[in-house]
User: Which sequence fits this backbone?
């Protein structure tokens, strides 16, 4: 009789314990209904969005906040406010969501990628200076999975080379670096409110800064390049190129209501994350996330790294990873892959077409061709090939009961105690399809 649930053994995790995200309460529903009753659904200075901006600015401790319709919009507002334009290079991490890089391109800038520090998966500051050229204007640092990047070191590099430091805090609501909230660690910060995030709004974004100048520019980027004073009407005169990044009242009201519980969920995520970390630390060949002692994480993602060699397993690490994931899934553990290649390996950068005529990669103002060699990011490749995320996006770690984590810990122990069976799991190989994408057959 087999032990593993994958081969017919009993399943470790009972059904019905997982909590779906976002948790939607009666209070959340009343907040959205109140918008419908008020009848104001939009507006440059609409009441819910304005109140949300004030509340988020207070939460972060920033002077200014702008509510937007996505995290990508928030990032682009920061890039535009930094004055990025044709021919400018902006440094960012090779391990992130695509928008960390494309937000740079939305202002005609050229993303330059830096490989990651393998311990915290954020851009490796030691490699940043080597990528700085006379064209470099900014750094977009990413607080990946909720862990703030190395801001003391990043600020020193930014100051030395006169670069604007932008913080992609899209995954880091409520995380701290040396006691300071994520989002406030660079000159400007950007958050996403998409449904998977620790602060969900359906979709949405938040831009924060202490600079009146950056705030003014970002605000014009938000709304067609117009200058709009708080509480005043629109003149419809545009003073720069702007986009249409306004948020709406219903998502703003929903996110405001969620904000009241953000700290509770961050604390719950930390308790769950610390518990799982302790259990996984006892299992050979498994490394839970490392959180440096000078910062905290909201555990936006709980990424587990495998070391097949330490377990005497040879061959393709992806095959081992997929087998372990299949075994855990069968035991009832929620697991997922998130990002399976470094950003520069994305076809967008390999094809190099951008938005036409090869811009911004070979814009005449750039005067050269940006080349992205996927092999330049070994630490990112190692991470994506040897790791996976526990608690997939519909059931992230933040609202889960500790009881579920205990079962997850048991399931990990069981799977790693039965590696001989795990190695018998058949995984269909990945194949390259005609357009260059990798798909499972
Ligand atoms: C690190 C990071 N940057 C940027 C974004 C973009 O945010 P959004 O999806 O709200 O546009 C996301 C979210 O998907 C993200 O995780």
Assistant:
């Amino acid at each position: 009789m087999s032990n593993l649930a994958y081969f017919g053994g009993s399943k470790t995790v009972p059904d019905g314990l997982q909590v779906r995200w976002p948790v939607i309460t009666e209070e959340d529903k009343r907040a959205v209904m109140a918008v419908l009753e008020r009848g104001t659904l939009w507006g440059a200075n609409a009441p819910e969005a304005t109140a949300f901006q004030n509340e988020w600015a207070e939460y972060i401790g920033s002077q200014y906040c702008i509510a937007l319709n996505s995290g990508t919009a928030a990032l682009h507002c920061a890039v535009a406010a930094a004055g990025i334009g044709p021919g400018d290079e902006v440094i960012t991490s090779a391990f992130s969501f695509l928008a960390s890089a494309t937000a740079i391109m939305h202002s005609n800038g050229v993303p330059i990628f830096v490989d990651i520090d393998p311990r915290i998966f954020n851009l490796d500051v030691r490699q940043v200076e080597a990528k700085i050229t006379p064209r470099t204007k900014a750094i977009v640092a990413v607080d990946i999975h909720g862990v703030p990047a190395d801001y003391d070191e990043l600020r020193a590099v930014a100051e030395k080379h006169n670069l604007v430091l932008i913080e992609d805090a899209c995954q880091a609501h409520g995380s701290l670096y040396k006691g300071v909230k994520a989002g406030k660690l660079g000159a400007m910060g950007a958050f996403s409110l998409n449904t998977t995030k620790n602060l969900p709004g359906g979709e949405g974004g938040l831009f924060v800064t202490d600079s009146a100048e950056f705030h003014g520019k970002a605000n014009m980027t938000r709304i067609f390049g117009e200058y709009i004073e708080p509480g005043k009407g629109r003149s419809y005169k545009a003073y720069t190129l702007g986009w249409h990044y306004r948020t709406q009242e219903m998502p703003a009201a929903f996110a405001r209501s969620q904000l009241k519980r953000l700290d509770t969920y961050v604390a719950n995520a930390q308790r769950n994350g610390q518990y799982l970390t302790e259990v996984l630390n006892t299992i050979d060949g498994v490394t839970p996330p490392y959180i440096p002692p000078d910062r905290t994480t909201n555990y936006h993602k709980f990424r587990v790294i495998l070391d097949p060699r330490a377990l005497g397993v040879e061959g393709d690490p992806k095959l081992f990873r997929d087998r372990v994931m299949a075994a855990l899934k069968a035991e009832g553990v929620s697991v997922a892959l998130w990002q399976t290649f470094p950003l520069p390996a994305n076809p967008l950068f390999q094809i190099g077409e951008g938005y036409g005529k090869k811009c911004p990669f070979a814009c005449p103002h750039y005067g050269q061709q940006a080349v992205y060699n996927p092999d330049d990011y070994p630490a990112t490749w190692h991470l994506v090939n040897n790791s996976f995320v526990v608690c997939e996006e519909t059931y992230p770690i933040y609202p889960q009961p500790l009881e579920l984590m205990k079962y997850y810990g048991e399931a990990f122990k069981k799977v790693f105690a039965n590696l001989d069976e795990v190695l018998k799991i058949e995984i269909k190989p990945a194949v390259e399809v005609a357009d260059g994408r990798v798909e499972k057959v």
User: Anything to note?
Assistant: The two ends are 30 Å apart (CA to CA). The mean pLDDT is 96. The CA atoms of residues 43 and 248 lie 8 Å apart.
